[in-house]
Amino acid sequence: MIRNVIFDIGRVLIGFEWWDYIRRLFDEETAQKVTDALWRTHHWWELDRAVLSVEEILELFYSAGPDVKEEIKEAFDRIGECMSRCEYSIPWIEGLKERGYRVYYLSNYSEHLMHANPDVLDFLPHMDGGVFSCYVQLIKPDPQIYRTLMDKYDLQAGECVFIDDREDNVIAARELGMQAIWFENYAQAKEELEQLLEEKA
Predict the structure, then answer these.
(1) Please, what is the average pLDDT of the chain?
(2) Which residues, in sequence order, are CB contacts of 93 under 8 Å at separation 6+?
(3) Reduced to 3 states, what is the DSSP secondary structure of residue 156?
(4) CA distances to 174, 184, 195 from 146, in Å
(5) What pTM does this model have?
């Protein structure tokens, strides 16, 4: 029986449309260089892991794109503009809770993002708890971050369904014994979740 629904946050419960954002700031060539420096090197993961300081991580970004240093800083400082509320998030959470499910979050997320646009996280008070990577110095798909969530709330893997937009994170959840859904869009994920909840009732 499924008792707990666990959500990723970025690109699941909030919008994070990077290309729309970065193309508003820069021309195509500069946008690509900034994107490569921020995302192609996996240094962003270190921001989510929060072991290094923000200043140290910025230096890693700069080293990956030395000719667009100022643009990297601008994109980083204005990152809140990349994030948007999803109108479905609170109704989805509340609908599950009204049916007796516990609802949690498990997210690779940095304090920088939290401060950049706190309004997009307005669904958090509606949830039963969760784990942000930056507070435990672990990131998905490391199995230990999933275990950290389960230990914190005394959850059994077989009673959980996990929803994430990254396939590797979904695979890691399944390997721990959870049901898991690869999020592509709200309608698809909601339909798959309802089918799963019915099957596992």
Answers:
(1) 97
(2) 7, 103, 123, 126, 127
(3) coil
(4) 11, 21, 23
(5) 0.97
